[in-house]
Amino acid sequence: MTCSFLSTRLDTLLWDSDETDPRCIRFKELLQQQIERLIKVTDVRYFIISMNFVADLYAAEIILKLRHTFPIFLECALHHESSTKNWSVRDQNMYNTILENADVVKTIIPECNIMFYITQRKYIFDSGDIVIAMQKNYKREGDGLIISSASKRKAIIVLNPDVLTVEDYFSLADLPNAIKIYDKVNGEMKEIKVTTTSAKAEQKCRKSKLNSKL
Predict the structure, then answer these.
(1) How far apart are CA 111 and CA 121, in angstroms?
(2) Name one Pfam family in it (predicted).
């Protein structure tokens, strides 16, 4: 299983860049709880992060820390090479350290153009079985349409940095059953019966796919 991340801009965070702020500390705690939850409950092993904003860096640092305990992998999917040129020196150093330690670093579009953001976002959502959206109001922000579309076929976890709440757009209680629906046999994906979920949940579960590269 693969998890991808969507984050909000730095200037929308109430604590700005102050990582000593209690709200920032709590946000990181909630983020780590959700990542560990996915690893332990749904067997997520592959994480894809866009590295666009500081919240992405928080998630990447947590994954690299947890990699010492769990067999997980981090992919940094960059939209173009010059994306950090206006960042502070501190954030650039954090960014570069994460890239040096990531398992995979992929540049989706080598040069900045009008489609770079959309193309990167599409790659992020198409690649993830589960999406963690670090957004204060994902239904109104720019990625709301993408999330609404993705929620029809995959699980969405919304972590709100303003009120520090977690919402499962598609209940993770059904995801262990979703994993059982597809079983890798002889290199092929074979569908098997699941009877423990409701008809509605099972229909949604059948749209979840086990990432063949894991």
Answers:
(1) 16
(2) YpsA
